[in-house]
Amino acid sequence: MLTSMSTSTLIRDARKRAGLTQAELAERAGVTQSVIARLERGGGNPTFLTLERVLHAAGHRLELSAVHQGLRTVDETLIAQQLALSPAERIRGLDAHAAVTRTFVNARVHRREQHA
Description:
The chain is mostly helical. The protein is 66% helix and 0% strand. It has helices at residues 7-17, 22-29, 33-41, 48-57, 76-84, 87-115. The longest helix has 29 residues, at 87-115. The relative contact order is 0.09.
């Protein structure tokens, strides 16, 4: 089962597997050859019904499913980036962030002292 594929690739692959030309697929789907060419080029954003009709004309059935992923409240790419670092690299990064934070805190304290 495919999890992700562009509609242009899906249509082009289905047509080629069916051994059809763009003109033949267009005739079967009830559209013009230029519509098929545009869809295969990625120049269109077909509706679900149009995609279903074109794929059916190529002898394919479109199946759609929704898979629950849960609510993501964190950016998992940031976690992956950190896990790719060695422990020493992670500590150096934390030290650098701590130094920047100290700079901001000290600047704020200094500004408050000047206005007091």
